[in-house]
Amino acid sequence: MEAERLLEEAARRIATSKHCVALTGAGISTESGIPDFRGPKGLWRKYDPEDFTLRSFLSNPAKYWRLHLEIFAGLDRAKPNPAHFALAELERLGKLKCVITQNVDGLHQKAGSRHVVELHGNLGKARCLSCGREYPMGEVEGRVAGGENPPKCSCGGLLKPTVVFFEEPLPFEAFRKAEEEALKCDLMLVVGTSAVVYPAAELPYLAKFKFRPSSPLWFSSGLGEGKTAIIEVNMEATPLTGIADLSLFGKAGKILPRLVERVRSMLE
Ligand code: NAD
């Protein structure tokens, strides 16, 4: 199907859906100037993922905080782009129940999305690993830049950003809510994720087949066509493309505003 007809068909499916949810990844924020991990200008071309494991943070927190300043300082000044605004508009139109995001940048909320499930926490704060006290990230980054590295709580405990590191479990309530939405939805819009970071990457499968691929029954369950439509928006094919009902290839900041505009006109 050529691009315009694909867009039209995607808009029709969203307009007629009963419970549409979005799953977003780092790719939705690249047009806000925040690099993703695995895209062409992704962070893994320059940095070692091993430095972002919980083990590595605990063994050398000063190294993490040095990298943090290099990569993430100023994230609080980043602005949502047209893709974030389009999803917020889809929620206002009553056609998007929630955004499940792997992102830690808070841009969906800044764009006006009200129902956001953050699977990997966010970089807005740092929390003491001893007493749990939280500090605004800007304040902690200022202390690190001023030479206090690693930064400590007033109780002497180590400060860690309120994000999920590799090897760390996901926040229980956020993942429970995401699974509930995946089981409930009849359409999942998957935007800007390479769909390789688990368990988040499992959600589109759970949505489509109402079944976990990690389940031992997966191969013998006779899944058929799947119950829920998956619409993928990405710059390139991903492991999800094979199960997606529609794949819209290109920049999310270009595609989503046009898609939502069409949904709006179909609802009028
Ligand atoms: P990823 O880096 O693995 O994949 C990004 C995907 O987005 C790629 O498939 C790429 O082709 C696509 N993409 C890049 N720019 C795009 C654009 N303009 N329009 C559409 N698609 C685009 O990211 P991921 O799948 O989210 O998973 C990795 C982890 O990255 C997550 O755990 C997340 O916490 C973390 N992360 C978050 C941020 C952020 O909060 N902005 C930034 C970097 C990494």
Write up what this structure looks like.
The protein has two domains: 1-34 and 79-120 and 170-268, Rossmann fold, CATH 3.40.50.1220; 35-77 and 121-163, SIR2/SIRT2 'Small Domain' (2-Layer Sandwich), CATH 3.30.1600.10. Helix content is 35%, strand content 16%. It has helices at 3-16, 54-59, 61-72, 82-92, 107-111, 137-145, 172-184, 203-209, 252-267; strands at 20-24, 98-101, 116-118, 121-128, 134-136, 159-163, 187-191, 229-234, 246-249. The strands form two sheets. It has a six-stranded parallel beta sheet, sandwiched between helices. A hairpin with a 5-residue loop joins strand 4 (121-128) and strand 5 (134-136). The two termini are 26 Å apart.
Features of the shown structure:
alpha/beta; Rossmann fold; SIR2/SIRT2 'Small Domain'; 2 domains; 3-stranded antiparallel beta sheet; 9 helices; binds nicotinamide-adenine-dinucleotide
Please tell me what the overall shape is.
elongated
- How would you write the strand order of the largest sheet? 3-2-1-7-8-9
Please report which band the strand proportion falls in: under 5%, 5-15%, 15-25%, 25-35%, 35-45% or over 45%. 15-25%
Average pLDDT for all residues:
92
Largest sheet: 6 strands, parallel
Bound molecules: nicotinamide-adenine-dinucleotide
Count all strands and give the number: 9
Percent in helix: 25-40%
* Model regions low in confidence, pLDDT < 50 over at least 5 residues: 219-224
Question: What's the total helix number?
Answer: 9
The arrangement of helices and strands along the chain is: HEHHHEHEEEHEHEHEEH
- What's the structural domain tally? 2
CATH topology of the largest domain, anyone?
Rossmann fold
